[in-house]
Amino acid sequence: MLSLKMNDAAVRALGVLSGPAAVTPPGGLAPGLRDQLAGGISRRGSVLTWADSVGNAAGAPSIFGDLTGWECSDSSFHLEDHVPVHVALVDSTPRITEDDQRILLLHGIAFALEFGRLIHGLDPPGPVRCIVAANETNGTFRFHQIRPGEFWNYPELDRYQSEKMVVIDFEPADA
Asked: In this structure, how many other beta carbons lie within 10 angstroms of the beta carbon of residue 69?
């Protein structure tokens, strides 16, 4: 089962009410994101991480308080490092235009949907949340297993006023 939620800022930026073509990245998924997917994921004890992660899963949750925080920290990466958008430096602070934030969201959503195939390839597959966010300084992707009593983002996504946020949950049919 797939569940996709986004805050109002993301809905407006993506124009999703115009139809499904509104959430397809121009030119397809960026090659750098395809490379990230090719690296795969792995379950290490109680955590899910990138296969090539150097994070110390044996010490999870470490300073993060819970396993969800550990996974989000370990899995997080900046979309603008892989997607061709312009990041201007203004007073030593990165600035990304609204149009480029939209491009980051499009690639982040497409990446998450491809990432879902990796999740379903796990034995056994489990419930996983992908979080895509973009704002005027960066775009991020992160994931974590869905656990009772643990969360990374607030359920009410419109609480995020300075970010455009999309949350995609993948849950096995038998969960």
From this structure: 18
In a domain, 164, yes or no: yes
Q: Domain for residue 61, yes or no?
A: no
Which segments of the chain does DSSP mark as H helices, in order?
A: 8-14, 31-39, 67-75, 98-120
Q: How many domains does the chain have?
A: 1
* 89-120 pLDDT per residue, tens: 999 999 999 999 999 999 999 999 999 999 98
Structural domain including 122 reads 2-30+76-170
By three-state DSSP, how is residue 86 classified?
coil
Left, alpha or beta for 15 (phi > 0: left; psi -120 to 50: alpha)?
A: left
pTM strictly above 0.85: yes
